[in-house]
Design goal:
By secondary structure, this protein is of the alpha+beta class. Helix content is 46%, strand content 11%. The protein is built from 23 helices and 14 strands. The strands form four sheets. The protein has an eight-stranded mixed beta sheet. A two-stranded antiparallel ribbon has the order 7-8. A hairpin with a 2-residue loop joins strand 5 and strand 6. Helix 18 runs antiparallel to helix 19. The chain starts with a helix and ends in a 12-residue tail after the last helix. Keywords: RNA-binding, Transferase. This is Poly A polymerase head domain-containing protein. Pfam families: PolyA_pol (PF01743).
Length: 537
């Protein structure tokens, strides 16, 4: 029998949460009396050198353990520093409590706390309430603001939608140009065959333990200006750069398998280390089966898209490969033709690595965010670009079905893949700048049969750019990974022998030649409106 979240929490020691402070906390007698009940016994109050500030001397959870003496520590701020906008927002919320004499505790949950402690700005503020629904509190805030002559910039209630992982109603309010989400603290229980939990009001501790990772389980208590660590290890894991689940990882993943991909995404994003027990659980057959059965392709696709769009896409996909999750994430439909080798995932990861490094070497400014994202998708799916399956009467490509991304993404990646053969046939002639072009190995269509030889390079290049429009540089970059075509480059790619300088040279030479043709108006004459790397005329 699996360990439920509620039962697991009950087994935990009922010690008070670990606390940090905010620098604006006043040192009053009543405040100190309140803190003395909540602070750990080894916390020491110090007013030395910083008037009106509560400081903790280093405690065990902030010190490197002897066993981790060689591990790199992440710089974590001692206090959360609020922006002026955040101060105004929190002030309005606290004034609402005073105005109606409410005893509600307001806590900012999750990612905002983590990012602020890491010194990063975050505009995603989620507030958890301990004794009322979000919609009820938003009504109170709106009423208070009206009494002062202020008006909320926007109000919304997002209903629960368990099928889309939206388990509770969320109320939203726009204050000082920021959308704030309000929801009640909750605990949850999962049935055996569903990732949709039974939800009910919970305590802050129960809410912390139900979260995916310890680094995402921290709260910032607006009432007390304290960071609260109810799992008693969230701050430590953040400091040491560890990705750990609050409860046993296998039970956590079986309850909600999407947490596997979230763990990978955060591990890659922050360059944190995945816990060994977490890795074992993520790679086990039970969890892989649950991920395939419980999670929709759309939800998986959303997580992968965040990884590919993030700052460490290669590390994220490497984690997926190392944990033997590739074919669960990038699932293949039945009856794929031609058959796909089980080992081709290694080539997908290698093409992604090569593309990512080549983009950095060429210069990220040559590609906008959308081009960079779809370039990386084109690289991942390059070994599968010819694999198709039958969907009713139509032949469908793997990318369209695997992640269920928006149709335009699939169309772009498929068009990039279709253009590669033509680009590869043109590259040697563009590099040699020959007018006498003999291109016979690619079918360009009947309309190009009678094109004069002296015009063929210009016309065919213009035609190719017209086909792939703003993504021609993406197609060119992917083509350089396959060039020259008379040798098999895949072994070098697999062996991480990317020859990046050589491939950059090819890219830059071909790019310059195409831009030169455009500057002369040659591509305009071929019917191709030339655009720069950002899609601007």
């Amino acid at each position: 029998m699996r360990l439920s979240l509620t039962n697991a929490i009950k087994l935990k020691a009922k010690a008070p949460p670990l606390l940090l402070h905010h620098s604006s906390l006043p040192i009053a007698k009543s405040t100190l009396a309140f803190l003395s009940v909540l602070t750990p016994s080894n916390a020491t109050l110090s007013l030395t050198g910083r008037p009106n500030t509560l400081t903790f001397l280093p405690s065990p959870f902030l010190r490197c353990r002897a066993a981790m003496a060689t591990a790199a520590c992440v710089e974590v701020k001692e206090r959360i520093e609020l922006t002026e906008t955040e101060k105004k927002i929190f002030d309005r919320l606290l004034n609402t409590l005073r105005h109606f004499n409410l005893q509600t505790q307001l806590r900012v949950a999750g990612g905002w706390v983590r990012d602020k402690l890491l010194g990063k700005e975050c505009y995603d503020i989620d507030i958890a309430l301990d004794n009322m629904l979000g919609s009820e509190f938003v009504d109170k805030v709106q009423e208070y603001l009206s009494s002062t002559g202020e008006v909320a910039q926007g109000l919304a209630v997002i209903p629960s939608n368990p099928e889309q992982s939206k388990h509770l109603e969320t109320a939203r309010m726009r204050l000082f140009d920021l959308w704030i989400d309000f929801v009640n603290l909750r605990c949850e229980d999962y049935s055996e065959n569903s990732r949709i939990p039974t939800m009910k009001f919970g305590t802050a501790e129960e809410d912390a333990y139900r979260r995916d990772l310890t680094i995402n389980s921290l709260f910032y208590n607006i009432n007390t200006n304290l960071v609260e660590d109810f799992t008693k290890r969230g701050l430590e894991d953040l400091k040491f750069g560890r990705i750990v689940t609050p409860l046993p990882p296998k039970a956590t993943f079986l309850d909600d398998p999407l947490r596997v991909l979230r763990a990978i995404r955060f591990g890659a994003r922050f360059d944190f280390t995945l816990d060994e027990e977490l890795k074992k659980a993520a790679a086990c057959d039970d969890v892989k089966t649950a991920l395939a059965a419980k999670i929709s392709r759309e939800r998986i696709g959303t997580e992968i898209d965040l990884m590919i769009s993030g700052n460490q896409p290669v590390k994220a996909i490497d984690y997926i490969c190392d944990l033997t999750l590739f074919w669960v994430v990038f699932s293949l439909p039945p009856k794929v033709e031609p058959a796909v080798s089980d080992e081709c995932y290694r080539l997908s990861a290698a093409y992604l690595d090569a593309s990512w490094q080549l983009i950095q070497l060429i210069g990220c400014s040559n590609f906008n965010d959308e081009q960079r994202r779809l370039c990386l998708y084109s690289a991942v799916f390059l070994p599968l670009c010819c694999a198709t399956y039958k969907d009713r009467k139509d032949k469908m490509y793997i990318f369209r079905d695997s992640l269920k991304r928006k149709a335009s993404d699939a169309d772009t990646v498929i068009n990039v893949h279709k253009s590669l053969e033509k680009f590869l046939s043109l590259i040697p002639y563009i590099l040699s700048n020959e007018d006498d072009v003999q291109i016979t190995e690619v079918d360009w269509g009947k309309e190009f049969v009678d094109v004069p030889v002296t015009s063929k390079l210009r016309v065919l290049t213009g035609f190719l750019l017209r086909e792939i429009k703003d993504f021609w540089r993406v197609a060119l970059l992917v083509s350089t990974l396959l060039y020259p075509t008379n040798i098999d480059c895949s072994k070098d790619i697999m062996d991480k022998n990317f020859q990046l300088d050589k491939r950059k040279g090819i890219f830059v030479s071909v790019e310059n030649a195409i831009v030169k043709l455009a500057t002369k108006g040659s591509l305009m004459a071929a019917g191709t409106p030339f655009r720069d790397c950002r899609g601007m005329p």
